[in-house]
Every structure is written in structure tokens, then in C-alpha cells.
Amino acid sequence: MDTITRIRNKAKAGLKTIVLPEYEDSRVVEAAKVIEREGLAKVLLLTPDKINPADKESYIQQFYQMRKAKDPDINKIRKMFDDSLYYAAMMVRKGQADGFVAGASHTTPDVARSAIWCLGVDKHISIATSAFIMEVPGSDLGEKGTFIFADCAIIPDPNSRQLACIALVCAELGRKVLEMTPRVAFLSYSTKGSATGRGIEKITEALKLVKTMAPELIFDGELQVDAAIVPEVAQIKYPHSPVGGKANVLIFPSLEAGNISYKLVQRLANARVIGPLILGLSHPCSDLSRGCSVDDIVDCVATTAVRAQ
To answer: Domain range holding 252?
Structure first.
């Protein structure tokens, strides 16, 4: 059974309510029909008639109380709530829905801001980040062709602590959604000291933090990507690696590297991509690429539903 089918089956087994605020996008409308037909979630397409004026005013007042130290102009906040993203995110915060998915017609910064400001960051992680689930057809690398890539959408230049936290939330994503044992590789242009530089030092410090924060986790770095995912290369470059060339969670040193890599794999290897899934918040939500297909939206909703279970 492929990764996408397993995720969809898990979503069916414990239905959750997922809000789709981009009701004017034809792909989102079609995806909502597919989700309902297949029973993947209780989907709420947030058309204007679904927005309760009393709830909207209550959300505005609550949001104002949360943000007034940084943004004391309530009229500016009212204008923000003209965008249904914020109404959807506050529904999730207040327990009226289990998650939301957007991004077909909004940029990643738009979606991330609404999610972070409305849902709040998990105090145990203290950062918001993102990840993609990548399914590469015909590949035996990673987890039978499945990988988690991070961060590819939110943090431009993660520091050591952020890299460590990205690894932890991605490992949890792998366990919960993919039911796999995560094997984490911190990627670089160097394998275990074959080169030097500030980026190497950053990863070295991240490894120390992960060892303290999650000593049971299987991880290694710094690793070039071939040493991380190809067992034969790992035997040549670093035969003592606990990851052993079988990494299924790839942590990129920068947003540039992560974003370029996922798009290359998607286009050149015809990989099925789910995400970016926004991680590290108090409730699950997912962004979408503005170039997403109907299937991409369905997959993101199913994955968000599983995360909410």
C-alpha cells in the first residue's frame, strides 16, 4: 500500500473537521467534493454564508486582546478579518474545527502569519516551521521512497536550536502520520568534517541539542545527501553513521536549499508532494503551493486530519 493510500485510510478511520477558507478557488471547491465523497474528513468550505457575524466579532475581539501590544489598532484587525483565513484559524483555536488548509490563492507568508498569530506556537517547541512529505515513485531509498523534507517554507536561515527543533517535530510527524521509525540526517556540503565552515558548526551544535532533547532519536550529521540516503555511499564516506545511508527525514541547512530541493525532486522524479505542513503550533494546519492540484489539496486535508487525531 502506498503512502498516500495509507494516509487517506487513516483519515477515514477518525473523521476530523477541516476548514477550507478559499471558497472562490475552483480547485478547492472540487477538492471539497472529493473529500466528502471519499469520507476523508468533515470538510467545511468557508463560504460567506458559513461565517457567523457574532462569531466573527468575538474572534476579532479575542484576536485584538492577543495582539494589542504589537498592533493596537482594532480597525486594522477588522480589515485583516475581511480575509477568511483569520476566521478559519480562529475557528480552530476555539475548537470549532480541528485544522485548516489554505494556500491555493494565498502566499505562504499569508497562511503562516494567520496560523502563528491565531493558533500560537507550541510552548515545548517554541518555533513554527514546515515540512513536506515526499513520495518518490519506484525508489527504495528513504522509507521505501518516502521522505520528510524540512524546512522548505518558513525559516530562512535556521540557527542550531531551530534546526534541532525542526528535527524533533519532523520525527514526530513521521511517527504519527507515516507510522515510520524516523532516521534523521542534517544535510550539508560536507560529510563528517570533509569541509569546514559556519554551516558545519551550526549543525554540530544542533546535534548536541538533539542528543539532549531526544536521546532515543536516530540521527546524524553533517552529511552530504548521498551519504545520508544511499547505503553504498554511506559505507564509503562514513561507515559508522547510525543513519547508515537510510535517512528518511532530511533536515536542510537553509530555506533556499530545502525549497529548491523539494521542487527539483517533485518535478524531475515526479514525486507526490504533501505540504508544506505547518509544524510547531498548538493545532494542525497546512499550507499549499499556489500551483497545487486538486489531489494536492485532498492529500493535505487528509494529512491534516490525521495530525488532528
So the answer is: 121-280
What are the backbone angles phi and psi of residue 15, rounded to the nearest 5°? -60, 135
The verdict on 252 and 172 lying in the same domain is yes
Rounded Cα distance, 253 and 203, in Å: 8
Name 51's Cβ contacts closer than 8 Å, sequence gap at least 6. Answer: 84, 87
pLDDT of residue 1: 65
| DSSP bridge partners of 17 | 42
Q: What is the pLDDT of residue 69?
A: 79
| Type of residue numbered 226 | D
Q: What is the pLDDT of residues 52-100, one digit of tens each?
A: 999 999 999 999 998 877 877 888 889 999 999 999 999 999 999 999 9
Residues 182 and 168: their CA atoms lie apart, in Å, by: 10
Q: Same domain, yes or no, for 116 and 126?
A: no
The string of pLDDT tens digits covering residues 240-297 is 999 989 999 999 999 999 999 999 999 999 999 999 999 999 999 999 988 899 999 9
> Could you tell me the CATH number of the domain that includes residue 246?
3.40.50.10750
- Among candidate residues 144, 137, 170, 153, the one with its CA nearest the CA of residue 265: 137
Q: What is the rounded CA–CA span in Å between residue 59 and residue 53?
A: 10
Could you tell me if 47 and 178 lie in one domain? no
Q: What cell was used for 30?
A: 472540487
One domain for residues 7 and 61: yes
Q: CATH code at 37?
A: 3.40.50.10950
pTM attached to this predicted model: 0.92
* Residues 168 and 140 placed together within one structural domain of the fold: yes
- 212 lies in the same domain as 293: no
CA–CA dist 1, 6 (Å, integer) = 7
